[in-house]
Design goal:
The chain is of the alpha+beta class. About 45% of the residues lie in helices and about 10% in strands. The protein folds into two domains: about 5-220, Glutaredoxin (3-Layer(aba) Sandwich), CATH 3.40.30.10; about 220-249, no CATH class. A four-stranded mixed sheet has the order 2-1-5-6, with helices on both faces. A two-stranded antiparallel sheet has the order 3-4.
Length: about 250
């Protein structure tokens, strides 16, 4: 059964949904992940959480922990700020339905919940996402040449992805902007903890490994020729050391 999911990277509930999506995907259960902004009116740079805000977030994480399955974990640190997630939505829209969609989703959640990085910043996202974008097989020259899927104003690079972002936002609004994550399955619409419980049942039904062994989402595609020096100086990746040690240009 295919599941449709609406979620936001900055939500702890959606973080668990992403982990369960990894388990289901590894078990060959398709999850149609559609990214939306939970708080689109946040400042471009996001906002630093107050003491009260951090306490509230900690309480939400504790509540999510109580929903964990046997042997399931949710590795994280407590974020100090809340990002504006348009850039993350844009990146996910660019790779939607590609071979790297799961890698990009998993990486975005890891960058925020485990590394504490600002996933709303195009500059922060550029280097970590480059390998996955270059592996995406995108027909867009801008993506394949630069490995970059987010513009400096945090929007997607291609028109198709821009339309996808708008469609996802409209679909979620039509559902009543329900608490995230939202799962659509078998004619039912579930949100928040109910959605997480349903995902847990799907994991159990599929007999999926709750902690699957997954490849590094940052890996670069195999290449025969050196990339241009200008690309290396901006993006880096595994070529940076080669250029520094050989003096290649």
């Amino acid at each position: 059964m295919s599941l449709i999911m609406y979620a936001d990277v900055s939500s702890p509930e959606c973080y668990l949904a992403s982990r369960r999506t990894d388990a289901l995907s590894a078990a060959q259960v398709r999850v149609d992940w559609r990214a939306v902004e939970q708080a689109p009116r946040l400042p471009v740079a996001g906002e630093r959480l107050s003491d009260t805000g951090r306490e509230t977030l900690a309480d939400r994480l504790d509540a999510v922990d109580r929903l964990l399955l046997d042997h399931e974990t949710l590795p994280r640190l407590l974020p100090q700020f809340r990002p504006n997630t348009l850039a993350s939505v844009s990146a996910l829209a660019e790779v939607y339905d590609s071979a790297v969609a799961d890698d990009v989703r998993r990486l975005l959640f890891s960058l925020y919940w485990q590394d504490g990085l600002d996933v709303g910043s195009p500059e922060v996202l550029r280097r970590p996402l480059a390998g996955a974008i270059l592996r995406s097989g995108s027909p867009g020259d801008a993506l394949l040449e630069s490995g970059y899927a987010v513009t400096m104003n945090r929007g997607p690079v291609t028109v198709e992805a821009y339309r996808r972002v708008r469609a996802w936002r409209t679909e979620w609004a039509a559902l009543g902007n329900l608490e995230l994550p939202v799962v659509l399955t078998g004619g039912a619409t579930l949100s928040g903890p109910d959605a997480l419980r349903r995902l847990g049942k799907e994991v159990a039904y599929a007999q999926a490994d709750v902690e699957p062994s997954l490849p590094d989402p940052r890996r670069y595609p195999p290449v025969a020729d050196r990339p241009p020096g200008g690309w290396v100086s901006e993006t880096g990746g595994r070529w940076r050391r080669t250029y520094r040690t050989t003096g290649a240009r």
